[in-house]
């Protein structure tokens, strides 16, 4: 970093102004995207419908049923001829293929739905400065050279360098596994890694690599995402089905052995009361037909014992519930959520941004214990100047105005935007003028423990 002239040298090499950011023109953004890549990660190839068909065929109960169907079909044709002997085996084949088709279609649709939801949930809005204007863009639209504004709770969207900020603490547990927060500053450790989170403080960073060129992107190459997690109910039902199938196989084998022993020991008789097996006197065709009938009876026990449609019925029910919830504008990421919500008795939800629009506005303000209903006109100019200092200097938000005749654009957290709007519109605050008159000496950044922030300021010598 020193070899390239520090952060300013890297920014100059990337054609970025650390205060204004990149130009923001479509040509500049496209040129940077072609040179350094886009801020997206390579995904494994999408699973096709045939993949889910093959996966359905690998199920143990399906394989058992297919074997039983083949045996039943062969024995049926042998015993009753082709015209009437295919009914039992053919019916089992039709039922099995119906289960496979419905399972494959359901899993394929679920996988596609999951991909769509992943794109929506990963599309985070990030604050950047382009052309001197602070604005929110999609994390996928960030390019090398962008100036990104970070605050508590934000995810670092790409690899980059610390430009300026205060008390910046980064949670790198997703990268290193260490729970201790890492302090990032301009002197000793100016490096920010994609995928980490801001635990405290705020800062501006210069993006130096995006997408697959980041440390996070290289890690993502080696990680495969398995989206075929079973719900707890599905896992229990599959276990129950396997257990019943094993018991059915054991009973069928026992019945097969008992019937064969009874037949070959002469304990079975035909319709006329005659023994079916008389040793060497019995014709080979009669023995084969008898054995086929016994095996068919055992196969029937196996087919009846395996409740293959039970897990399928649960999957279809949960998929239908998922579709109904999507119609009600409720995003369902996993099928297990439908099952879990069915047994929920109390729902705790965040209010801001969930039940409300997350748009705040200053309605009243107090001077001491006195409510100031009349507005700024009744306040001492000295007090108004103090409010201007507090709002303009003790904030991570910003005010942008393209030209004197246009409306103001406020950026930052909802609280900061509300206070900035009130100070600029109601109290006639000039944020740029106030910032030029004072220098920030020390910052106590806001966090959830302190629930407040503060700045130590000094008046500039030339003022």
Automatic annotation (TrEMBL):
Read off the Pfam families from this record: Cation_ATPase_N, E1-E2_ATPase
Q: Which residues form the Cation-transporting P-type ATPase N-terminal domain?
A: 3-77
Gene Ontology MF terms: ATP binding; ATP hydrolysis activity; P-type calcium transporter activity
State where the protein is found.
Membrane
Membrane topology type:
Multi-pass membrane protein
Keyword Cytoplasm part of the UniProt annotation:
no
Keywords (alphabetical) are:
ATP-binding, Magnesium, Membrane, Nucleotide-binding, Transmembrane, Transmembrane helix
Q: Which domain of life is it from?
A: Eukaryota
Leader sequence residues = none
Write out the transmembrane intervals.
Answer: 89-106, 244-264, 287-320
Transmembrane as UniProt keyword:
yes
Annotated region described as Disordered, given as residue ranges: 1-26
Cellular compartments per GO CC:
plasma membrane
NCBIfam families, alphabetized:
ATPase_P-type
Check the record and name the PANTHER family matching this protein.
CALCIUM-TRANSPORTING ATPASE 13, PLASMA MEMBRANE-TYPE-RELATED, CATION TRANSPORTING ATPASE
What this protein is called in its record is Cation-transporting P-type ATPase N-terminal domain-containing protein
Lineage at the top is: Eukaryota, Viridiplantae, Streptophyta, Embryophyta, Tracheophyta
